[in-house]
Amino acid sequence: TSWLQGHIGYNFEVNEVLNIDAFKMDEFKNDKENENYYISSIESGLNFIKVDKLTDPSKGARFTGYVEYCSKLFGSDIDYIKIDLESRFYLPVIPDYLVLATRFRWGNLDSFESSRKIPIFKRFFSGGSYSVRGYPYERLGPLDEDGDPIGGNSLVEGSAELRFPLFDSLKGVAFSDFGNVYEDSLSIDFSELRYTIGSGLRYMTPIGPIRVDVAYQLNPPDHFPYSRYRVHASIGQAF
Prior knowledge:
Elements: E1 2-15, E2 37-51, E3 60-70, E4 80-94, E5 98-111, E6 154-167, E7 170-182, E8 194-203, E9 210-217, E10 229-235
Antiparallel strand pairs: 1-2, 2-3, 3-4, 4-5, 5-6, 6-7, 7-8, 8-9, 9-10
């Protein structure tokens, strides 16, 4: 299966942010003054896929890219440019038995005024079943004093996973993920990357694998308010 798909378009949103405890923080003080956010932007995306099987690839690659340009020239309340890039590779180490799957994602969000003016619903978040396993959903990165995520303007994530058959429709995996979200634009500090390891099972079905993973945080942040172990369950491969 292979295809190349691209798009470009105009997007207009009206967003109202409610019940966010982070409003008490200085970086979100401007949110109190606006009942609605008007987002007017030009978006473009590119998606290239060349794999042997869509639901459970064992050979091939996938690349995705997304750019959003938001400007007051278009009637928006804020100015920013957002870039989100991801690559995935699938390599049959031992044909019909052992597959190495890898993933790398990089994202950046840059305001033409101040990064603090970018609303929380446009920021990057990390952690969860399809992200850095071992961390709760969107809990990897900047948190407020109550342990709630506030997002950031730079993101980096990666994964390496070995996939192998066990018996009949059951497969096993061993994996390691890494990543983090950083408050400022273009501020990735590789010494602050968080790493996890884990293993899991895949029960193959006609619509894709049913997945259960158990992951462990190797180097969580200081005073991180969540367990180092986490179980993830979902449908479809992690990537």
